[in-house]
Amino acid sequence: MRLCLKHIQTKSEAQMKILVEEKIKEQKALRETAMAQRKERRDLLTGRSFDLCCRLCGAFICKSSDMRVACDSQYVCCDPTIWQRIETRVHSNSKALSIATLVGKPYCKGTKECVCNEVLGTIVRLYGAFLPTISAKAIVVDDKDERGRMKDEKKWETISREKFFIEPITERDLVCFRDINVSSRFFFLCFCSCLKFAVGERC
């Protein structure tokens, strides 16, 4: 900001125009580079699919192909059957975030052999649909190494760069989850009640 003010005070209009044009070109080049890298990564990882399992008990959570990214930071599972494998609990301190409203948490139900209750992430209302986000720290990718151990990564950025490509969420994904949410009336009303508490408006 200070540098910008200094330029305004010391540069002529023509010089400022050149600086602005250079900055626009620089930003465009950065965007094009990022897009090229994204396409290269997508081409490289297309078709790769893994089971994502609970870090604590090993229970199946979802397929990697069912993961989506929303707003560059929310990694959500878009498999409607995930509700059968998790227990949902409403947040007592729900709050509105910049791009979504946090309304609860999903817990792993575990396996036939054990009850787990590991927190898998959060449940958010995003674009009108209730969606479970999955924390990279809560899961392991079933991509066993030569010793038969599952790979344990801590960040989605690393997983999506090295293991499989995560597509952006689509309107089709959201419509599917909106329909599921509404069809489960009790589930829908619980989270809507929590949503009204968080943002102070009707759901």
Automatic annotation (TrEMBL):
Residues 40-173 form the RLR CTR domain. InterPro entries: RLR_C_sf (IPR038557), RLR_CTR (IPR021673). It comes from the Eukaryota. This is RLR CTR domain-containing protein. It comes from Toxocara canis. The lineage of its organism: Eukaryota, Metazoa, Ecdysozoa, Nematoda, Chromadorea.
